What we know:
Blueprint: E1 3-5, E2 28-30, H1 31-55, H2 60-77, E3 92-95, H3 101-111, H4 151-164, E4 171-176, H5 184-194, E5 200-206, E6 209-210, E7 213-214, H6 215-219, H7 224-230, E8 234-239, H8 243-253, E9 261-266, H9 289-313
Parallel strand pairs: 3-4, 4-5, 5-9, 8-9
Antiparallel strand pairs: 1-2, 6-7
Amino acid sequence: MKSLMLDETYSKDENSDRHYSGKSKQSVYDLQKMIELEIIATECRLNVLRMIQSSGHGHVGGAFSAIDMITALYFYKMRVDPKNPQMKNRDRFVLSAGHKCMAQYAVLAEKGYFDKMVLDTYGKLHSKIPGHPDMHKLPGIEANTGALGHGMALAVGMALALKLDKQDAKVYTMLGDGELTEGSNWEAAAAAAKFGLNNLIAFVDNNGLQISGKVTEVMDMQPIDEKFSAFGWEVFRINGNSIMEIITTLDRLDEVTGKPILVLAKTVKAKGIQMGENDPAYHFWTPSVSDLDTVEADLKRRLKNLKSGLKEAI
């Protein structure tokens, strides 16, 4: 079985604000596992297309930019049990940018939280998978989100409660970069630093676009990393569409003590849709049958190639 070796020194560059020296806890990454995660992420993208086929539309841009990170969290890092979604010491995931929920639904279905047939009800009346997450309808959803700026505060509360209960579980939350203009995020960021919530990890899906255009033109919140650092957070920068960078960073988060953690993830809007990458028009997509067929064929071709690579890695 082939393995992929990491450098012992993870030096500061454009994709990483933090400098690492010495070996990480997991210095050898199994190539087979890497390809398996890429396969799962591609399957999850196909799950999103299945939902779009049901409804005829959806927030695909953010779902596809975030889906690699959400896949890695559920299939590589988080302590969860689909058969017991309310177990006390589970890790929590709060999707603050609730309009990206198709990504989470896709991953939860792939993980086995519910039957994939439910995906065919997206956009339908009384569906368990509405346009924003609803914790009362679907197992695995920790909070109702979608009113932007609320998820961070909810995650802070969960992380603080886990500390008080002496549970070693972690809380992961994901925000959009456009969402950072909501002031409630910064109140929550200050509180998280005050209470030293090193069990709180916030991902910012930094795809640079929102429904009305470039985030920097609508309301420029740069430099995001320096702002969080000034609030007292430990900051990491990664390529959020690289499974390798995601999982190596996830392992290194365990080394942080006494601080909440921000992972600023540079991503591509609508990653995986060749005709729509980095196009704000794909924030909310109403595809033609032809476009949907083209994207599905591209993803299935990628899936086939990945599975061929997996056979070679074994």
